[in-house]
Amino acid sequence: MPKATYMYWQKRFDRENPDKEIEEKILEIRELHKDYGYRRMLGELRNQGYVINKKKVQRIMQKLGLQVTSFTRRSRKYSSYKGKVGTVAPNRIRRRFNTHIPHQKITTDTTEFKYYEVDVKGHMTMHKLY
């Protein structure tokens, strides 16, 4: 080990933690809000008057072992639901989709085909077939 490195760490060894106050504040906030990640923690610290970088908050929380796992992408269960997509077409041919007979389902399929035509000038026009 180089002497310079040894002396550098020797000098730093007795120095007290400059982030002690912030660490205590983070632990205090954590007591009240168990589900706060570093972003919410940063917002709460800033609300209380601290001027601090988000990376520092993240680093301190990692050091203290306070990372939240309940909101990570891996912890959430997969859901393919994308909400109500599209619109329900009007029943123009007056098909009866409900029945009084139990366990019988009447279904329909509407498929849309798109095709393009190129005119003499080379312009494309799109057409839809239902």
The run of helices and strands is: HHHHEE
Helix count, DSSP H or I runs of 4 or more residues: 4
CA(first)-CA(last) distance: 78 Å
Biggest sheet architecture: 2 strands, antiparallel
Strand order of the largest sheet: 1-2
Strand content: 5-15%
Please describe the structure with a list of short key phrases separated by commas or semicolons.
single chain, 130 residues, alpha+beta, two-stranded antiparallel ribbon, 4 helices
Which SSEs are present, and which pair or pack?
Blueprint: H1 3-13, H2 20-32, H3 38-47, H4 54-64, E1 113-118, E2 124-129
Antiparallel strand pairs: 1-2
Helix pairs in contact: 3-4
Description:
It is a single chain. The chain has 130 residues and is of the alpha+beta class. It has a domain of 55 residues. Helix content is 35%, strand content 9%. The chain contains 4 helices and 2 strands; from the N terminus they run ααααββ. Strand 1 and strand 2 form a beta hairpin. The longest helix has 13 residues. The mean pLDDT is 83.
